[in-house]
Amino acid sequence: MIKYNICFVRRGPEILLLNRDYAPWMGCWNGVGGKLEGNETPRESMIRELYEETQIQECRLTFKGLITWTADGKNPGGMYLYVADIPEDYSYVTPIKTDEGILDWKSTEWILSKGNVGIAANIPASLETILHDPNCYEHHCIYKDGKLWKHVSTVISELVETNEKQRASLFEKYLHTSHDPIYR
Question: What pTM was computed for the model?
């Protein structure tokens, strides 16, 4: 089942990103997040992780869907996806060195620049939708030989955040992908 979450903290035209010190995505800029603990709901976990990694408490947290992946037709995984909006005048001075890496504000223009190899590979394909489309999506990433091969975004119900049965049926399709021609 899905054990991770990720959040893009938005302050006007900027996104707070983490340049990770550890795998996965070591050396790349990515959102902040982590692993669900115990009996946490996805939202409770995201609030905790957001505070632990950034110390930000005051925000409007919006569920935006899921990021799921398969690697070489197997190893399915996933993350709950959130956007945390803070006011444009919110003072948060960066860069900040943390246990996880370096936090810094990046403009969406910089993040989406063609040829920007410093960003986690799946972000350019989904960030515009994440930030500007009111729907929830499953952003499914298919990796082959360690590289992003294909990215598919599909509208899903916002109830996926709170309904375990809906999440389970959505994620179940990736448990037997090795026979699906799309992954070959």
Answer: 0.91
